Amino acid sequence: MNKQITVFSAVVIKDNKILLVLRKEDELPNAHLKWEYPGGKVDFGETPQEAIVREVFEETGVRIKVKKLLPVVQTNYWKYSWGTQQTLCLIFVCDFVKQETAAKDHHVEKIDWIEIKRVRDLDSLPGTDEILKLALETI
């Protein structure tokens, strides 16, 4: 079986640090315990902008304001026990508003603000460093 999903992620920068989450997904070894931008799927009736605000808050407790959509679509293919999932990811650059406490998300092992210069050294999902470079060029 194969399926395709579309997700939205957020690049949030504060004090020369980037907001990242450590993914927790045992059933997907190629992504498990790798750093990624917070985000997720759009619920029925939501706009992508509303979804990214909700998803970032649910995963991290961080309130954001959406600035702009980056001109790139990442495509990844993930092999699960049930088949292959094609994931299309669109990325928003967002402003930090404030930090609150969030409920623990079942796909998040850890939340951290990482120094921008350290992002390239992390074990992260494909394209993380390239997306950061593009985001920095546009702000």
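[next item in queue]
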Amino acid sequence: MPKVTTHLSKSLLSVAAAILLAKAHAEPLKIRVAYVVPVTNIASILFAKDGIAKHNGKSYTFDAIRYQASTTQIIALANGELDMALLGFTSLPLAIDNAHMDDLRAIISELQDGAPGYYSNEFAVLADGPIHRVEDLKGKIVATNAQGSAVDIGMRARLHEIGLEVKRDYTIIEAQFAAMRAMLSEHKADLVPNVPPFSRHPDMVKSARTLFTQADGIGVSELGLWVARADYIHKNRAVLVDFLEDYLRMVRFYTDPANHDEAVAIAAGYMKLPTSTFQDWLFTEKDYYRDPAGRIDLVSLQRTYDVQQDLGFLKTKIDASRNIDLSPIEEAGKRLH
């Protein structure tokens, strides 16, 4: 009898273990995705519209986490505190070059700056000021959000084209985007990056004039790439394809002109601002380009890497294609056809 009891106990334990294992596998995968700028970075409002995503809450759950900068996202990725970082054409190669994270893979292009017919970051001077040409910036003070950032590289590249070099010919100071209007109006800087939504402020519209754009300095640039580690993609590929399918559905909803008023209302509600703040630009051609298939412009990405090496921000030449994996988004896209 004791032997039967022991055998029965082992059998029950095996069944219990199998049930627990099945439950563990059935639990949706929590996907933690970073964003920086609310609304402009779509992760912040990705699933604000119900009834479009098919897999959210089933095979995965979604957690959008705001970070102030790409550097902290890279650290979070390295420590396993984040599953997907929002990196750009400046931060991704720096993570590869400086942090030696060669296993990073860009899997989605969220935002492109300067795509034909779409918005490019502006660099503004006072509308009634003395600066009318880029050459007039010699000996002046220019502002940037952070040295080595996307707008910083675009600005330096444009000045470099005409022979102006930092420290020798002009001075750079740093400030948050929200402070740029004051920096310009109070004459603390002669040139400032003027990006949405801050560029849409009525006072900025009145007082500022665009001198050049980021595209003038570097052409089309991958401003926002969703980046994960290779082993994470491999381990969770099936669920990631579900997630990316839902991502594409949401992007197509937000960028469809037929849904514009509803999309603006969602953004305004999230930011607790009037709809007029977003009505004439968000998810239109006045906004950054959002590829409906999530494709990455490899030619443009490589060019921006080369510009950064030329400016001294990258120590070595990096082959951009080595750290791109479009196969999950391509698989997800096939489900929509």
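[queue empty]
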